Amino acid sequence: MAYRLLIDGELVDGASTLDVINSATGAVFETCACADEAQLEQAIAAAKRAFPAWASLTHGARRDYLNHLADAVQARSDEFCTLITREQGKPLAVSRIEFDMSVGLLRWFAEQDLPLETIRQADEGRVLEQRTPLGVVATITPWNFPLQQLTLKVAPCLSVGNTMVAKPASTTPLTAALFGELAAGILPPGVFNVIIDAHHLGDRITSHPDIAMVAFTGSTPTGRRVMGSGAGTLKRLTLELGGNDAAIVLDDVDAREIAPKVFQAAMINSGQVCLAAKRIYAPRPLYDALCDELARLAREAVVGDGLEPETQIGPLQNRQQYEKVLEIIEEARSLGNVIAGGNALNREGYFIAPTIVRDLPDSARLVREEQFGPAIPVLAYDTIEEMIERVNDSEYGLGGTIWTNDAERGLEVALRIQSGTIWVNKLVELPPDLPFGGVKQSGIGRESGLEGMKEFTQAKIINLANKVAA
Ligand code: NAD
C-alpha cells in the first residue's frame, strides 16, 4: 500500500483501509491505511517513549531535523501539490500557495527558540521563566488545508521538544501520509506518528491519559466535543474553530474596484477557508452596484477540476459539505434574491456554481451560520453603528476584512469588531510570525508566532536568591 501509517518510525499498513474520493469526480481514486485502536495505542506509546530524548536535545539539534524535513518536503513539491488538489479539490495554483506556506512554516519555526528568560533581576537574586515541552501532543486537523494545517502544528510542536501523534481528516489523509513517509526517514522513531482514521478514533485521542495536549482545528461543534472529552484528563487545548467573517465595505470606495477583492476573499478554495469572507456588508448607496459586480464575477468565474490550469474555483471537498451548502442556498432562495449561481453543476463531482444572494434577512442561515462554500450573502447597512452591531451579533469571531480609502476610519471600525484578526485593505494574510486565532466560539488559544509556539509549552518560574538568607 502506498499511503501508510507512521508508528514508531515504521510505515505500516492499517488494520483496515480507507477509500479516498476525488471531489472533482466523486469517485474513489486512492486507498490508504486506516488504523484501529490498538495501532493508536502503539503510536501514543511510541511518542511517549521518544519524548525524553527528543525533549533533551538542544534546540539547534531539533532545528536541524526540522530543516532537513523541510528540504525533503520541498524536494517533492510537485507530488504534494497534485496530491492536495486531488484529495482536497482546490486549483493547483492554490495548492502551490498552501505548499509554499507549509514549507515556510517548517523553516520559520525551526529557527525559533524559547530560551530561558530573566523576568526579574536584583542584587540579591533573580526570577527566571523556563518554557518546557508538555509531552505527547495530538494534532487533529481539518480537510480544507491538509498540509498547511498539519505543518502549522508540527513545526512549533516539535521545535519546542514535544513528540506527536497526528490525525488528519478522514477525507484528506493522503498528504499527511506522504508527509509521514518523509518524516520516517528523518526524525527519530516515535517523535512523529501518523494515525489515519475513519472518524472513529477522535474521542479516544482526546480523552487519552498519555496525551498532554490536543491541538485541534475543525468546526465549532467538534471543538465543543473535543473540549468535553479532554476534561477528564485536564488536557491542554488549542481550539481553532469555525468563523463567519464579515467583509465590511465603507462608503468611500468604488464598488467596481473593491468587488474583485471581496470576491476573492470569499471564494478562495470555494469558500472553504476558516477566514474566508462569509457575509458582505455594503453601505446602501453602494449596495446595488456591489451586488451587480459580485454577481458578474460569480458568473464569469471558471469552475472546474483543480487539475485543469484554467480553473479558478474547484469543487466542494466532500458530499456532506456539498449537501449542506445546497441546503443553505435553498433556504436563502426562499428568503432573498439569488442573483448568480444558486445551483449544483450538472456534472460528476461536488460542484456548486458561485452564488451571490441579496436582500436576505439577518436571520437567514446563509448569514448566521458558517456556510463554508461558494455562496455569499450581500447585506445593506445604513449606519456604521448599526453595521458594527450586526457584524458582532454572532457566536463566531475569527477574522474579518474592511475596505476603505481612509485608513483611520478603517482602524476605528477595526477596533470595534469582535474577532481575532482584522485586515484593513488586505486579503487574508497569514505570515508565520503573527499570532492567529479566534475569540468567542471561534476558538481558544493562538497559532503561529511566538505566542502560538508558547501554546505547546508550559511556563516554569524559577525564583532564585543568591544566598540562603541569614
Ligand atoms: P470537523 O470538525 O468535521 O473535523 C475536524 C477534525 O476533527 C477531523 O480530523 C475529524 O476527523 C476530527 N473529528 C471528528 N469528530 C471528532 C471527535 N469527536 N473528536 C475528535 N476529533 C474529531 O471540521 P472539518 O469539516 O474537517 O473542517 C472545517 C471546519 O474547520 C470549519 O468550521 C472551519 O472554519 C474550521 N477551520 C478552522 C480553522 C482555524 O484556524 N480557526 C482553520 C481551518 C478550518
Automatic annotation (TrEMBL):
Active-site residue list: 240
InterPro entries: Ald_DH/histidinol_DH (IPR016161), Ald_DH_C (IPR016163), Ald_DH_CS_GLU (IPR029510), Ald_DH_N (IPR016162), Aldehyde_DH_dom (IPR015590), LUC3-like (IPR044086)
Domain Aldehyde dehydrogenase span(s) in chain numbering: 16-461
Keywords: Oxidoreductase
UniProt xrefs under Pfam families: Aldedh
Source species, domain of life: Bacteria
GO molecular function: oxidoreductase activity, acting on the aldehyde or oxo group of donors, NAD or NADP as acceptor
PANTHER family on file: ALDEHYDE DEHYDROGENASE-RELATED
Similarity field: Belongs to the aldehyde dehydrogenase family.
Name the record gives this protein: Aldehyde dehydrogenase domain-containing protein
Lineage, uppermost ranks: Bacteria, Pseudomonadati, Pseudomonadota, Alphaproteobacteria, Sphingomonadales
